[in-house]
Design goal:
single chain, Aminopeptidase, seven-stranded mixed beta sheet, about 30% strand
């Protein structure tokens, strides 16, 4: 059975290693400086990590930014609403396709009102069908797809931004 909980600061080094071990693929943009920034936000309690634990084994996690640190490039999608940005969803390679990512997204959606957020934003490589399916299953809708040469060096080199609007 998989349990879900927020990460604590003493787990951050292990989680960063897990991200690079299980999140590296042609679809993902994981520059060390960007990942360091995300984990610094978690250390400063401006972002959170929701963990999925299978017994004693890490099954996956999601990093989400609190509304006060919504990255500037996502402000155009927020329509003046407080928004959570989901920066990473990474699942252990041996556990992919079992609904863990969907559950992580669903739990972040449930927690959004606790942060005053009425909108959740996430992005993916346009051609990453596994991520697209996970996001759609959780209720996210596509907002925009654009050429993103800075972050994408594979396939179409496009990013798709998706949103979940709370009622």
């Amino acid at each position: 059975m998989i349990n879900y909980r927020l990460a604590i600061k003493s787990e951050l080094t292990e989680l960063k290693t897990f991200l690079f071990d299980h999140g590296q693929n042609p679809w993902n943009y994981l520059p060390v400086t960007g990942v360091d920034h995300e984990f610094n936000l978690v250390s400063q309690e401006k972002a959170s990590i929701l963990l999925a634990i299978d017994g004693e084994k890490m099954a996956g996690f999601a990093i989400f930014y609190h509304p006060e640190v919504l990255p500037n490039q996502y402000l155009q999608y927020s329509n003046q609403q407080l928004a959570i940005y989901i920066a990473e969803v990474v699942i252990h390679r041996q556990l992919a396709g079992q609904g863990i990512g969907h559950k992580l997204l669903s739990l972040i959606i449930e927690q959004a009102p606790d942060f005053g957020a009425s909108l959740l934003l996430i992005d993916r490589h346009e051609e990453n069908l596994a991520s697209a399916g996970m996001m759609r299953k959780a209720g996210f809708a596509e907002l925009r797809t654009f050429v993103d040469l800075e972050r994408r060096d594979y396939g179409s080199r496009k990013t798709t931004v998706m949103a979940y609007q709370l009622s």
